[in-house]
Design brief:
It contains 5 helices and 6 strands, in the order ααβββββαβαα. By secondary structure, it is an alpha+beta fold.
Length: about 130
């Protein structure tokens, strides 16, 4: 009797494409490279990505939103540049590329803000994560 049967452990028809996880990168309207379900998206992660959705191995998703240096949700359409600070610690010691994991509701409101540039959606998303 043979105990080791590798055919029972591994699926031989599995391909590399099956292991690929799907990641979507969202940006503000006007900076998109592609539109995904009417939402502005980038193809790769860069400085213009403000929200991202990453698929986990079990098929569920994790949502992330970019934070400004003051810890609030990043506002890329700010007229006065309030998200940019001249504080030495913010410029040198703290990274501005922080993303925070959020729930679906806050994420959808933030992506709606990126699509429409309507600050009401941003405020709704901020209230949801507080």
């Amino acid at each position: 009797m043979e105990f080791h049967q590798p055919n029972n452990i591994y699926d031989e028809q599995k391909t590399i494409e099956d292991d690929k996880l799907k990641t979507e990168f969202f940006t503000v309207s006007g900076q998109e490279q592609v539109m995904l379900d009417g939402k502005p998206c980038r193809i790769q992660e860069d400085d213009m990505v403000y929200a991202k959705r990453i698929q986990k191995k079990d098929g569920s998703y994790r949502n992330f939103i970019k934070l400004s240096s003051n810890g609030k949700l990043y506002n890329p359409v700010s007229v006065y540049g309030s998200e940019k600070t001249n504080n030495f610690l913010d410029r040198v010691c703290r990274s501005n590329d922080k993303f925070k994991a959020v729930n679906d509701k806050a994420f959808n409101w933030y992506v709606q803000f990126l699509s429409s540039k309507n600050l009401a959606w941003l405020h709704n998303a901020e209230r949801e994560i507080d």
